[in-house]
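Changelog-adjacent note: as of this version, every example in the card shows the full chain rather than a window. The one below runs 195 residues end to end.
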Amino acid sequence: MKLKITDRDALIVVDMQKDFMPGGALPVPEGDKIVPRLNEYIKLFEKKGLPVFFTRDWHPENHISFKGFGGVWPPHCVQGTKGAEFHDELYIPADNKFIISKGTSPDFDAYSGFQGTILEDLLRERGIRRVFIGGVATDYCVKNTALGALNLGFEVVVLEDAIKGVNVNPGDVERAIDEMMSKGAVFINIEDLTT
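Full-length structure tokens:
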């Protein structure tokens, strides 16, 4: 299947932060391995002058998702810490880039880049109809961002060669992919794109 990037498209890079990389507080196995491929996608969109959105967990120290505050996760991506920074090799364009912070309030968790953020508004005011999504983790924030976009009426393309999952429970990644596909997401690799 060949897809052409149009001026109604945007790229969403999900949570490529140090705490989600190997050695981080909440590592996604081989999460760092997709950085070069993500960079290729980012440069493709940059070349066409299309917007690139970088979502990030940006939690207060007492966030509801943390074990000490009733959640299931160890503290991660705490605002202003090293672990909340993007991977050092992730390419972040000088222009046409947007940083979307989620999970910023202590009592509100957000797996989707659309929850409690202005991401939808930014896409709509630019006339975006289709979003391309890559990043981590397939079975959490990638899945929820994709489903959120679909629920809001956007077309969704998931970058199969630029996502990695956690698989806390065996089969989580496969189930997440099935769910995204059954709701209408399309999966592609970089060779499927024409510019």
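Structural remarks: The chain has a mean pLDDT of 96.
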